[in-house]
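lol so apparently i was supposed to do this last week
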Amino acid sequence: MLSRRQFLLGAGAGMATAVYSPRLAHSRGAGATQTIVLTATAMHLGQYLYLPFEVPGEVNRIDISVTKQGDAITGVGLFDQRGAGYQSAGFRGIYGEERSQLFVAADSASQAFIPGVIQPGTWTVIIPVFRATVPTVVTVTVVLTFGAQPAAFEYGAPPDVVLDEPGWYRGDLHCHTPESSDAWSSDSALTPTAWADTARRLGLDFLAMTDHNVISQNFDLGRAAGSDVLLMAGEEMTNWFHGHATVTGIDVGDWLDWRQTPIGLPLPSGEPGARIQRFLAEAREMGAFVAAAHPLGLHLSWQFLADGDLDPLARPDSFEVWTGPFQPDDEAALLMWDERLRRGWRVWANGGTDLHGVENTNGFAAGTPTTVVYADQLSKTAIVRALKAGRCFVTRLPDGVELYLRAEGPGGQRQIVGGTIFGAPTDTVDVEVLVRRASGMRVLLLVDGVPISVTVIDAEEQRITVTLPIGVGGYVRVEARGVPEVDPTNPIAGRTDMEAFTNPIFFAVGPIPDDAAPVDGPPASGGPRRPAGAPSPGPGAAAGPGAGSGSGGRLPATGGAPTLAPAAALAALAAATAAVARTGRCVHHVGSDHGPHDHDHHDGAGHHGP
Ligand SMILES: [Zn+2]
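anyway here it is w/ zinc ion bound
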């Protein structure tokens, strides 16, 4: 960890200068103030300016405001006397570009900042520079107020076990509140309480509160959640320059730093960047599930893929393959995920709404998409454990398409999504997917990312089965595709035809592990546990079999066959044929228990090749 002095030297090397000019107040009686003016020069994107200042004893409130002369776009954050080093316990909060005034005190603080007793010592303002085309003088005015410390703020209790029974639980792993300054600026961000109310309305069971680099949204989640929704403490690690990651299931008060660089390259200010491995290790130490957010989202993309190629410890638990409306960058993320899976990464996929405000014109909405997780109970521990085991699928709406994938292999092995079936290359695996609420859509089974069958669904509930060899190992997963939706007047709100996809079941050559207990996805009740708009069942209430009443995502019952289907099916089958030839994998049988639309596909090429 760097000392403050090294930081200052680093800041100097980065062409920033901190001018320390205290102006002492005349007295230090209660309510007296002392003003300190600090300046630094923002030179270019990617800089962190560090402006230390001394806090004497008996200060009970610190106010900070930032002004600029120039075009630089910056944020502002604060570290207390415990230091400004990476992952410092002294982190007190940070804003993006939208806000420039804050305070902290023992019993309260600005949104996004952490209250706590003001201790004397060297505190540090951090200014991240998001843009600077000309050198910009940044002036930070610090006002210290003297007086007795009020009683310190205390965290509320987080939600406990909400429902103690196994089931498929629906939720969102990427929720912003007004504690994120960009969400705050939307004027329509949902607070944790409003998120819980929204969950009740939509039939969602759990939500992770993932604000940008801050943790104040987590301070009172038990009260905000009520008794029937699981709100999980979280953070969106927002490395403004190299990618974001949602962190789900930390404890209240836990915080994760964002100052990493790909391959640990130096930060523009000269200090070495932290490695992404360190962030991931610390998040896991906190018991959290980590997903690279919108991994191919242009300037928001995850730039630590090369780190992960070099070191498995640099891979997140999951990729948020589906962010908000499924768009071309999500399709690209899906391809990237398949490509990493083929290379042997064991990284899952999940969804996240990334909703910053309910009033938006980019097609973002609560519940779009919904991540459906099979967990032993509705609690933070169980949801995180299930996510880390890959036991989930993602669907466009809370009452959207359901895809329950399971497999049965040699020796009585039974697995659901996230599981692995072991055996010899010539052993076979019976794979089944139970499809619900997908009438008129196409369901694709993919092996190693390549479609091997396309089934047009003609029933409310339908099973598709296929028998596959273990072969050289690999994985099977499922997608449901409907029709794209494009608004010519607003292209950014459009979406592709993705309706749902599952995590994979892996095949591996080798003996069945002694501890491989069969995993059976329980019969899903169909639809959200709590149908949209229904009264809350309350804690401990049995999950009813009620299917939601919405028709989300489904095509019209008549004339709904997408015109793209035949061409897409042919293209998929052609690709599958090529894949079979390439991978040596043979599909023994593809079947469906409904309708005339089965697409059996046999290909003897390269049967059970190495
Ligand atoms: Zn976000």
